[in-house]
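Dear support,

I submitted the protein below through the web form. The confirmation email said the job was done, but the results page showed an empty box. After a refresh the structure appeared. I'm attaching both so you can tell me whether what I see now is the final result or a partial one.
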Amino acid sequence: MAVVVFLLVLSFLIFIHELGHFIVARWAGIEVEEFGFGYPPQAVKLFKWKGTVFSLNWIPFGGFVRMKGEEPHPRAIPQKGEFYHVGANKRMAVILSGVIANFVFGVLAFTLVFGRLGIPQEIKEARISQIALDSPADSAQIPENVNLLGLKIDGQLIQTQTVDSVIEVINQHRGQEVTVVTSGPCLGLTCSDSINEYPAYLRLEDEIPEGQGSLGVAFDPIVYVFYPAWQMPIKSSVYGMKEALTLGQLILQVLKQTAVESVTKGRVPSDIAGPVGIVHQAQTSGLFERGWLSILSFAGMLSINLATVNILPLPPLDGGRAMFVIVEKIVGRYKSRWLERYLNYGGYVILMALIVMITARDIWRVIAS
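What the results page shows now:
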């Protein structure tokens, strides 16, 4: 099921990418010869609209847009309706339109998610978000969604203002019976003024199950806040844009690390995953079983990932093609086309080699797990 959902999401995002190219190409006066659903070989021609053949292809994954004169011989003279017949600015717009479409979709996806879940707000307090089953906190019936205010030890209250202070006090008193002091139920940033106390035991290190702590509670660094209905669309849009930009910056940092380690150490960083690894991680975590908001959030992240990778100034990515529009102004169209043709070939080889390496490693990890 996870594989099917992933392929549908990725195919939809690639379709959006190609739709961006198609719409802007039509606007620029470039003839689009074919808009393919899936990848060749062609299975059937669905219909023809304003000179564009819409086709269904045998490989049910993604799609493509084939523009007239997109890959001419460097000496060829561009004709009306061909890609290279229009000006550099219009070609740049066509090239970058797919990236923009993916980025816009990512922002919209995050906007919808935050509109339903609330606007994330960082909190400094130790907000209890989860109680481990059969833990001391569970036995003491400590509730979730309250602030842990402190611990009473031998009748003396030690206040804990942050998660770090809670962890520090607990580690200092492992093996002891304590009283956990909490606030009343919390809603967003506000908590009830009531104070509650729960006698509990802090487990020693050798008594703690894997993945838990001495008390058996997990803390949430953020809460989701709802604002008046008229404010939510604006705030969710702003936060959606912020989330997309932050994610894009993070992806660029990871890509930089990947490039450095690939060159200096001859290997891809261990935390980089390809399609196989992403599907395995999503399936293991149950991401696709959490409902449509979880899938939409995943689609948004994947869309921003596609936009960020494609904007890199490397052949044969969209960013590389855009770079050659600038190079053309410097060295001329003839030299630029030759250079682009050969660098694209080299870029394809390197890109495919990297994909094969990452995929092979992901498959080995899945088999070994």
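Response: this is the final, complete result; the empty box was a page-load delay. The mean pLDDT is 86.
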